[in-house]
Amino acid sequence: MNIINGGITAAKGFKATGLNAGIKNNEKKDMALVLSEVPCVTAGTFTLNKVFAAPVKWDREVVYNSEYSQAIVINSGVANACTGATGYQYCKDMAARAAKNLSIPENAVLVASTGVIGKQLPMDIICAGIDKLPSQLGFTIEDGNLAAEAIMTTDTVSKQVAVTIEINGKTVTIGGMCKGSGMIHPNMATMLGFITTDVKIAKPMLQKALSNIINDTFNMISVDGDTSTNDTVLILANGLAKNNEITTENDDYKLFYDALLYVSTVLAKKIAGDGEGATCLFEVKVINADTKNQAVTLSKSIVTSSLTKAAIFGHDANWGRILCAMGYSTADFDPDIVDIYFESKAGKLKIVEDGMATDYSEEFATQILSQNPVTAIADMKSGNETATAWGCDLTFDYIKINADYRS
């Protein structure tokens, strides 16, 4: 696998762009369009929040019932969530408008929105933006950058990644972009993720790969414990790499799976590291656990602990908060054999051995915790299973951002 520059436009046949339509009443880009030159096999995963946005309902219909998709139209600034029948009709209107401009079927257009909950979309502005977007589409990295910028809300940076692999002597490319900074928590964690690839693959195999990978990537991140109404990850595969179609879990599927896992992991970590107000990415590894479920439960409990996140912000090696979070996680384990480490580019330090503090240097611990990223490792010493979760520190700025988000 080769890591390359680029994102949503890296794979063959995919164009994208972004622009300022005026939804946010400022100069920031707020609408994006992604288009494949040919129809795409499509897979998706969506929020498990019972309060889900109109675009989630629309995209489920397209992913599950349409023969193919070919375009995604995205707006930021307004989430189109809790908007009733009107909001769903607006999704249909957005898809119809884009379909007409792109000369493709309405049910081949996916729709995504992110932003403030409860407001209706300003459809005059949205439709004007959809009319402008097609003429600006392009295949370059810069075009992909425009799209990645346009889907941001409280994100401080755009988030993209791309890789290539070889399948049957053909170069297959996977690229993606995502947004997410606050209201991030499994399942899935407000985030939108869009992945494009030129691999030739059967729809069941594409959905299987994405659904399995989500559990180890986007479902292992948390910023604030709030699961969004709009969480969506979509992957479009147009087959232009011309590899032999992947129809079973063979070696070609494994190659593709591993590359997609890498892309999804990078995007997920970019979201966690750019949490609202965050100063660092906080990674939690649980190793040598009895079961995978135990490792997942423990790592998520640590990474979501507000007290632990605050300690990371203060560069305080308050390991008691970690062990406490493990204790209330519902996972069954023996706290008297647990070892805990902190690690960063400044070094690695064991702070707990067999459930008790070691004679560690507070000064060295502070040096480690002053870096970005910071990793906490909990060694259960009881099995062979591992899990990794990602989050961020909890800062004063998180409160400031969310106290006046709508204003």
TrEMBL record:
EC class (word): transferase
Residues at the catalytic site: T190
Residue(s) at site: Cleavage: A189, T190
Assigned keywords, A-Z: Acyltransferase, Amino-acid biosynthesis, Arginine biosynthesis, Autocatalytic cleavage, Cytoplasm, Multifunctional enzyme, Transferase
Similarity comment text for this entry: Belongs to the ArgJ family.
Biological function: Catalyzes two activities which are involved in the cyclic version of arginine biosynthesis: the synthesis of N-acetylglutamate from glutamate and acetyl-CoA as the acetyl donor, and of ornithine by transacetylation between N(2)-acetylornithine and glutamate.
Name the record gives this protein: Arginine biosynthesis bifunctional protein ArgJ
Species whose genome carries this gene: [Clostridium] fimetarium
